[in-house]
Amino acid sequence: MSDFNKLADTVFRGDFGGAAQITKELIDSGAEPLAIINQGLIAGMDIVAPKFKAGEMFVPEVMMAARAMATGMELVKPLINDVDIPSKGTVIIGTVAGDLHDIGKNLVAMILESGGFKVIDIGVDVSVEKFVEAAKQYNPQVIGMSALLTTTMVAMKDTIDALTEAGLRKNLKIIVGGAPLSQEFAGQIGADGYAADAMAAKELCEKLAV
Ligand code: B12
């Protein structure tokens, strides 16, 4: 097994100690930072993603794998310019006002990041104003909103209306998700898309962020 394959395997197994060690060894041996990312760290998440989709891996395992990938990323990132990292686009993600649930949001963020998006996670209980400010500051291709409570779903419409009123919708797609949501609800509030899980969220962003 090549060192890149070994690194991918540590990511797949969620072994962040191993991922850190092999990443360091690859850096010391002079391997290209982008090759470490693409052929090792992201390659590991590429094994995870279809298994998660097929129900062969579960949320805690995916989170461990994503954390192992992030551990390696932290070591490699200082060696490259941000501009050199190929990115499919910028996605801002947050849980809407009044809602503190973040497990699903974090999972979506990790899967998007491992799928090549630059993800800016603005946290939980995010006010309408904070979403608008973040959209102005980072100029993202996509904004993703998460809600797990039926009582906080309404904040999604308020946020979409505010983004529209601020004239920010031209080059911006808005996607929503969370257990109580549906495609129908997304349509009703004027979102550009809905995804039921993290893998579907990645596919949706790939379609929308062009
Ligand atoms: C864990 C949990 C908590 C934890 C949250 C910890 C954390 N850091 O997130 C704690 C204990 C803090 C909590 C608190 C509360 N909770 Co709670 N909680 C849950 C629980 C059990 C699991 C949620 C979860 O993490 N699921 C796992 C993740 C991976 O799935 P997910 O969130 O659905 O995310 C996936 C998709 O939805 C999608 N997705 C998610 N976000 C996004 C975003 C985008 C853009 C996209 C595209 C996709 C996407 O992709 C994700 C990954 O596949 C649910 C029950 C349930 N089965 O949903 C109740 C539940 C959501 N909670 C509930 C309630 C009532 C509460 C409380 C009000 C309880 C209380 N009385 O205090 C508080 C509210 C606090 C607040 N203000 O937010 C109710 C909501 C009922 C309702 N109809 O609104 C539920 C449904 C439980 C129930 N059956 O009563 N909760």
UniProtKB/TrEMBL annotation:
Example of a GO MF term: metal ion binding
Domain B12-binding residue range list: 88-210
Keywords, alphabetical: Cobalt, Metal-binding
Database matches in SUPFAM superfamilies: Cobalamin (vitamin B12)-binding domain, Methionine synthase domain
GO CC aspect terms: cytosol
InterPro entries: Cbl-bd_cap (IPR003759), Cobalamin-bd (IPR006158), Cobalamin-bd_sf (IPR036724), Met_Synthase/Corrinoid (IPR050554), Meth_synthase_dom (IPR036594)
BP terms from Gene Ontology: homocysteine metabolic process; tetrahydrofolate metabolic process
PANTHER family, sorted: METHIONINE SYNTHASE (PTHR45833:SF1)
Official protein name in the record: Putative cobalamin binding protein
Source lineage: Bacteria, Bacillati, Bacillota, Clostridia, Eubacteriales
